[in-house]
Please model this.
Amino acid sequence: MLQPKVAIIAVASRFEQGVDETEGWMDLAVRTLKQQGVDVLAVKPVLTDRSNTEPVIAQLKSEKFDLLVVMNGTWAADSLQIDIIREFSTPRLLWALPYAKTFSLASVQHLGSVLKQLGIRFSYAYGAPDDGTVAQRIVQQAKISCLANLWNGMRVGKIGRRFTWRTMGPADITYDELDLQLAAGPNPVHIDIDELFDLVRKIPDGQAKQLIDTLKKNGKLGNVEVKEKALVDAAKVYFAQKELIKKYHLDAVTVECYPKYGGLDNLASAWLAEEGIVSADEGDLGHTALWKIMQELSGKPVALTEPVMIEHDGSLVLRHEGSGAPSLSEQISEVFLKPVTEEGGVVILSSIRPGPVTIATVWGRNGEYKMSVISGKAVRLSKTEVEKYGGGLAARIVFSIPADRVVDKMIELGVDHHLMLTAGNIAQELVDFCKMTGIEPVAL
Model:
């Protein structure tokens, strides 16, 4: 789990009421933030002019942090704050205090206007330094900042047969890899699939069977409808992927499994997901990176899905060749391990547990990336219904608007067909993430 660090400074004016109280407000803010469990770097003195900015900048540069908080104790010169803010690429948050005599809110609004015109991204918070709700918002912004920093250097392993600019499957599930390397964002790390196969061959059957026995003993295997060899092969892929992730220092990995290697990594991906390790199908670089972000925000597994049917009741059916974590389902008895072919391959047949969900997708080129986010509610599906929809991992989602309007909008925008789904509502957090990374959030 990512542990963000917040740096906080305070600015004020000697000509405004509240300048003498600003340091005390800053100390109170630091205590309130620490009560939320976040690491805080408080840099003093309170800045009132340029005479003491250099030591403050130097100390900030000597430390590593994820979010720079600039508390406006009073109205403060915009030039003073801009001199500091422009020194750092780290996300910034402006804190306005609710004290009318200080003009703090007016100062933040004015500085925000200037930053907007300069193209400098920021967020803001309004409230007293001992306000726990404000502290929670700042901590949440710090977590998102941490993820924004991760996004801009994320290493995504792409395991495939060939190093082309497109995967074996549909062209829209990935970006030109050169485009990704030249723009701020995730970086692809190419790994020939033969290296995966070589590792699989070296893993002993006993090691693979021990994993299977442990899962079975702990009630995490599900209903097995495949041959033992298929399970053993999946366990070997699980261990091989872990080795590759460690070897190449990867944050996530995706395998070009479609169409030749169907079921190769699905079950391994599901087991890895239960450990918080991101392993996605079909060589989809962009959505593998998005999976990582959504998982960190929700603290829950993420499922890769596709829209397959608009039901008469206005709901949308999503499904994919099953590779979702078993905990995505309501209970392990609803998880079935199914064969892909007689030769091998395993997929999971199950449904997403009922309750609130967030669905997101990312697309674009040449650094002009967009993200669509929508929240909805998954409804219960029986095994028979999942099989009716084609098997694999399935979900039926009810939105606040009819599903045909959602699909109309996706097609109008040119949204990718891969839709990432997680339990809970993290729509606002994803929008905040977009603002910090320069991705354009687009409503569905």
About this structure: The chain has two domains: 5-151, 155-443. The chain has 14 helices and 19 strands. The chain has a mean pLDDT of 92.
